[in-house]
Amino acid sequence: MKKFVFAAIIALLAGVCVQAARPKIVAHRGYWKAAGSAHNSIRSLVKADSIGADMVEFDVWMTSDDVLVLHHDAEAGPYVIPDTTYAVLRDNYRLPNGEPVPTLDEYLDVAKGLRIGLVFEIKWHRPERENLCVKKCVEMINEKGLADRTIYITFSPNAHEQLGKYGVPHYFLTGKSPQELVEMGSDGPDFHYEVYYKNTDFIPEFKRLGMPVNVWTVSTADITQDFIDLDVDYITTDTPELAVRLLRETPDHKDVRVMDFNLEGAESYDAAAAVIRAEHPDFVTLQGVRHTAELNRLAEVSEMFVYYAANGKDGVAVLSRLTPAETRSLTLPNQFRNTPCKAIVCTYDLGSAIRVNIASASMSDENDVTRGHQAEYITRYLRDAGLPAILGAGLNDEPESKAWKVMRGRFGELGPDGVTFPAPVPDRKIDYLLCYPSDKVVRRASYIRPSAASCHTPVIADVTIRY
Ligand code: MG
């Protein structure tokens, strides 16, 4: 099977993408499908908490005599809530499970005794009433000491603006663009899932802007898993038990094998290809790539994709079993006009919202000050990218050099102790597999594979990458 791509590259890497926690599961209108429950009932709150939902969503109206109550629709039976007194509602209307319409006061008193977070929807009132409604809602949450586990949502632009004036976390419920939400002063989107499916750039852009992403109302297994894998912040669902189970079953790590291999001195790449094929790595970081015409064949024999960046004399490349989501070549600092050096960075989506940057870099072999600056540049770049990173580097330097001290200060080492150069009887270590951060990229095993395929022996590590 012809399974390779040659590309000398590259698209822009998306900006900083800091991984946070897994999505919070939000029970939409409480866990209303539970036995004896109903939308926005006290029981739906207690049941949502009991099954391990992270948060409960509920809808709040203000009666004509300024009492805050929970209900989804404006109409409760024959009564229009904003035009009805609380006493009339209480005495004449029941939820389908027999409970009276809860007041916000009653609901929050129960919530205080639970651990569940609150997604507080303020419904759309007439303008002259809405400002008072927002004020009373925020005051009650604050009085009950629930501010640190409450976020607010609304369809009403005015209520959204009012919430902003109180400085509370507030999200908008209809599909504005990221830029429009920024202009509204919003803390983030809470959009129907089809909005995100139709606008696939929205989630990456909201993440880039640092805006938490909420999605409603996701109730099938397929779509719920989609949004777990898209790594949103809140999933609002009518099937919270299903969502909690899917989240628990979603892997929190991926195991991969990584090889670093400097091809300097290889007369042809046939022997190197045989070494790679025998080790069956998921990723290979290559340096010293001089025979670019042979690189495609190396990838084909290894059954991997290849991404390459040219250097002054030798190129760097990454081989992988997956196609990357993004790739970028970086020109490394070269203030003394030595031979130019490059790095290549490939971003991979490993599934289950686990992503990793795999990079290959070749440092200057002419100037140790330049090497130090290059080490600083590439390590800072990978740290700032906000993803777990593995860097295969031909450091061209000894373990006590400045470049290595920079590397060691910022990155952990995945490779073993042991010499790598010159093959076949090495006496120095100048080839490294490095990682960042050490709690997300964990070595399970590593070894140096004896080889005479080039002047360097390859370094191999079996690695766990954590969410
Ligand atoms: Mg709602």
- Approximate strand percentage: 25-35%
What ligands can be seen in this structure?
magnesium ion
In the predicted model, the low-confidence regions spanning at least 5 consecutive residues are 1-19
What is the rounded distance between the termini?
A: 32 Å
Strand order of the largest sheet: 2-3-7-8-9-10-11-12
- Mean pLDDT across all amino acids: 93
Count of helix runs: 14
Please give the radius of gyration in angstroms. Answer: 28 Å
Shape: elongated
The total beta strand count reads 24
Class based on secondary structure composition and strand pairing: alpha/beta
Portion of residues within helices:
25-40%
Q: Specify the biggest β-sheet.
A: 8 strands, parallel, barrel
Describe what this molecule looks like in 3D:
The chain is α/β, with parallel strands linked by helices. It has helices at residues 42-50, 86-92, 104-112, 127-143, 157-165, 178-183, 193-198, 202-208, 221-229, 240-249, 270-279, 292-302, 368-384, 402-410; strands at residues 6-7, 24-27, 55-62, 68-70, 75-76, 79-80, 117-122, 150-154, 170-172, 188-192, 214-216, 234-237, 253-262, 283-289, 305-309, 315-320, 326-331, 342-349, 355-362, 389-394, 412-413, 431-436, 441-448, 459-466. A hairpin with a 2-residue loop joins β5 and β6 (79-80). The longest helix has 17 residues, at 127-143. Residues 1-19 have low confidence and may be disordered. Residues 57, 59, 121 line the site of magnesium ion.
